[in-house]
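Consortium newsletter contribution from the modelling node. Members have asked for a concrete example of what our holo predictions look like. Here is one, prepared for the zinc ion complex that several groups have been discussing at recent meetings.
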Amino acid sequence: MDSVLFTNVRVLDGTGAMPWSGSVLVEGNRIRQVGRSVAPISASGATVIDGAGATLMPGMCEAHTHFSWNDAATLSAIQKMPLEEHVLWCAKVARRYLEAGFTSCVGAACAKPRLDVVIRNAINAGQIPGPRYLAASQEITVPGGLGDETLPHLPFPEFSFGVNVNSADEMRKVTRMFLKYGCDSIKLNLSGDNFTPDSPADTTWMSDAEVAAAMDEVRVRGKRGTAHARSAASVKQALRHGIDVIYHASFTDEETLDMLEAAKDRIFVAPGIAILYAMLHEAEPFGVTNAMAVKMGYQIEWDAALESLKAMHRRGVRVLPGGDYGFAFTPHCQNARDLEFFVKYLGFTPAEAIRSATVYGGQIMMRGNELGQVKEGYLADLLLVDGDPLANLSILRDPSRLLAVMKDGQFAKRPEMASARQFRRAA
Ligand SMILES: [Zn+2]
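And here is the predicted structure:
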């Protein structure tokens, strides 16, 4: 069995505990031993990586991932990428996420029916490098809602970003189709979005009968429902129907917050706040000035989202980083910026932001008992970081500071350290 010994590292285990100087032994795909002293663990035959004081932490999880968003400025430009190019795009992006330190990603919807499933299967089969991945369905929406990009004179589903349903029966049919394809989760667009002015963020679109039909099917297959839910009514609808992963949750009231808190051991919130910030302050090169973004409602939503998410964090709701990277305004692989945003705008400590990306990451991947911590027996998903992320979270999105990335005991990015040495077993 291959083994790797990291010596002379500062171990940041993800739980919020203070880092310590020590060493970590990986055997096969698991963390075998975690040493808490500067004297290294003895491990003959292991490849020894002298960390020279670098930080060893768990791989991060992106809780709201869209591999198939192609860094374009419109939904239509994502949708119109031909399928063949789209598959190659997704494969390339999956590799980039892994190399950027995201050893787990939760798919939050893909732009064509089977893109996520195909990429997940290829990763799991070892055909392409990529993070551990939970594959999403396409977005499911209703006529006029977010994701319905059909035109009155071109009513063709191929032109639509999301799949349109128009009754509980149609919802059941579409949900069954995605479950047949092998999706790990079914994504429902419960609210609108300020990106689509005819269906803004504070509007709620799907009937309870439609949501119930989807969740019936999801439960029968033991899978998971996820929701695009920006409005308070949509967050409550998601909670009423037992949806586990809530994306955005920008608008809340006291009742919504109470309901979120009551479900806190079951649910996860992945708000994806970077896109709100980017639309307000960074989208001008793509034709959206600050004044236009304010008019679209982004300032109101930003202000509401910060209040909502701060309250959720105070109440112990698990709020996770990631979300809606893959637009021109929020290009892929800057995702770790969310950790900085959590500290700057949501009242997290840096250690809490890292816990959200690691410990909570293992939990949202449904493997909290073996993923997301530097802990004996856990899966060896590890990052070797040049510097102290607790003092400066921005190093987590600087490729030059990410010295090594390990997933499942294998290096996705090998350390290029002069002191790395290999000892061969004497016998
Ligand atoms: Zn999203």
